[in-house]
Design a protein that fits this description.
ABC transporter involved in vitamin B12 uptake, BtuC, 0% strand
């Protein structure tokens, strides 16, 4: 691999090459992919639901992924099994939300999806709390707590081989439907009048955003604020048009989480969980963006 990249054999010590290709390289790419996935999913959900406070976990995907991972840890499954259960739990949670919302007729579909997501998310969170209560306090509970705080410490090349194609595949419907998403922001009736198949577009966008969010959460745990904060920053830079917003959220999301992950490893002697650091950084930054946007509106 080093020769293929133009690096002469022996120019890099074997130990350094192992660190670069086996540890640091996959983690850097993993942080960028997770950040890009969460940010683009957040931007898609905010446009689809016409709500700037929507984040990628609005339909319960994070809660479902958390319950799946916690159940895997509770059952003492290997890492691959925990990640698989987390991924399946996230997809199952959104499928349940969509099924319940679709069964109710005569109401606003967007409002139904959001409310159902909140309710199902709360139910799944109670399942996580129950498993934490029943878990072994010596071994299982610390592992559960660590996973829920978010980290890329155990990210490896096998995770990268699964995450990269999943995120790229999930980005395809968002990129293809970018113009229709702008029309969807006008409301269902207006979009239908302009020739947009509202149910098809909404289903495709939810599927793509959910797939990449579930894949990201499965390998990194719960990392908040990325999907809420980065789309606001991207919107401030390039405007609300999704054709420009999508690539900007991908770039900013990747850069933001890479910077946060680097800081998490360098700030102290012990690595800080990503979920904690994103909240510490995201809260004042979001308030700044909110105040700046308010002044611009005046």
């Amino acid at each position: 691999m080093l020769t293929a990249l133009g690096i002469k054999s022996g120019a890099v010590p074997e130990a350094a090459a192992t660190v670069i290709w086996q540890i640091r390289g996959p983690r850097i790419l993993g942080a960028m992919l997770v950040g890009a996935a969460l940010a683009s999913a957040g931007g898609a959900y905010q446009g689809l639901f016409r709500n700037p406070l929507v984040s990628p976990d609005i339909l319960g995907v994070s809660s479902g992924a958390a319950l799946g991972a916690v159940l895997g840890i509770f059952l003492s499954l290997p890492v691959l099994g925990i990640e698989a259960m987390s991924f399946a739990g996230g997809l199952a949670a959104v499928a349940l939300v969509y099924a319940v919302a679709s069964a109710v007729t005569g109401r606003d579909t967007v409002l139904l999806l959001v409310l159902t997501g909140v309710v199902i998310g709360a139910l799944l969170a109670s399942g996580v709390a129950l498993l934490k209560y029943l878990a072994d306090p010596q071994n299982q509970l610390p592992a559960i707590t660590f996973w829920l705080l978010g980290s890329l410490a155990s990210f490896n090349r096998e995770d990268l081989a699964v995450l990269a194609p999943t995120v790229l595949l999930a980005l395809v419907p968002l990129a293809l439907l970018r113009w229709r998403l702008d029309v969807m922001s006008l409301g269902d009736e207006e979009a239908t009048a302009l020739g947009v198949d509202v149910r098809l577009v909404r289903g495709a966008v939810v599927a793509g955003a959910t797939l990449m969010t579930a894949a990201a959460v499965a390998v990194s745990g719960i990392v908040g604020w990325v999907g809420l904060l980065v789309p606001h920053l991207a919107r401030l830079l390039v405007g609300p048009a999704f054709a420009r917003l999508l690539p900007m959220t991908v770039v900013l999301g990747a850069a933001f989480l890479l910077a946060v992950d680097t800081a998490a490893r360098m700030i102290g002697a012990v690595e800080i969980p990503l979920g904690v650091l994103t909240a510490i950084i995201g809260t004042p930054l979001f308030l700044f963006l909110l105040a700046r946007g308010r002044r611009a509106a005046w």
